[in-house]
Amino acid sequence: MPFRVPLALFTVLLLLLPAKILAEETIYDQRMALFQKTEALTQIPWYYFAAIDNYERNVQNSDDPEQVISINIQPEIWYGPGNSTFLKDVTVIDTFSGKGKDGNGDGVADPSNEEDVLYTMAMILLEYGPDRDDIKIALWHHYKRDLTVQTIMNTSKVFETFQEINLTDRDFPVSTDYNYSFRSTWGDRRGFGGLRQHEGTDIFADHGVPVKSTTYGVIEMMGWNLYGGWRVGIRDIFNIYHYYAHMTGFSEDIKVGQVVKPGDVLGSVGSTGYGPPGTSGKFPSHLHYGMYKDNGYSEWSFDPFPYLKKWERIAKQKDQ
């Protein structure tokens, strides 16, 4: 006879689970359900809505509780120019040439209603057409910023590849099977090319040690840089650009536009840079790892050291 947990005991066990885990699982499920419903209504693939929502969530600077849907459409766009009373009746909004739509069939277009917001965003996209290139054009007209469009399209590509939005795994950028060392070097002075601030953490390791992706993302740039030598840039789904520099070269199977996941090998540690293509050996072999955050208006570097310590701990636990 199969073992069954009494209902009362099951309830107690459920209550003992960390509330944060339950909340996170629930909110991701709710988001995916809304994205897929909007896809069914509009025939626009769900991962575009997921990417737009994810982008906007990660440019918002708020201490408010995390919302299921974070897309924010400006009032003048939603209600239309001249609709100063912000009437939500769809007929009134149409009269004022507003974009707000009724997504749940209740007769009003409410910017605080998640179904209305997603359906409205879908209609904004469909003004330019349903294809990928059409959506890129629609996003540019909506955000008027190339990096925003690029980030959203890259994120949609990641979500499409993995058919999942809860992508929170991470890895350490240098294989922990090898000897390496690092400390906080963000903000240190550098002299090559003029006095400047070091925008990253140096991870010292032997020449040829594998370099791995720390995150889910898309390879945005690779090639030679005067300061960084052979380098790779990855844009992740949280609007963060990850910069890997001074490598000996790249893995044969990676290219610009490729989706990567934590642990994918990008190349190997080296000492390239500080000169024309091929320059090497002007400093000890190491990986320069930098992180840059985009807030929808500008991009800036921040100290990756605390994140590297956390990802190192995670990677070592996986290896045990």
User: Terminal Cα separation, in Å?
Assistant: 37 Å
Helix content: 25-40%
Overall pLDDT, averaged?
Answer: 88
Low-pLDDT residue intervals, each spanning 5 or more residues: 1-15, 17-24, 191-195
Keywords:
alpha+beta, 320 residues, elongated, Glucose Permease (Domain IIA), two-stranded antiparallel sheet, 10-stranded antiparallel beta sheet, disordered N terminus
Q: What is the element layout, followed by pairings?
A:
Blueprint: H1 7-16, H2 19-42, H3 46-57, H4 75-79, H5 90-95, H6 114-126, H7 132-143, H8 146-162, E1 180-182, E2 189-190, E3 196-197, E4 201-205, E5 210-212, E6 217-225, E7 229-236, E8 240-250, E9 259-260, E10 265-269, E11 286-294, E12 299-302, H9 305-319
Helix pairs in contact: 2-3, 2-6, 3-8, 7-8
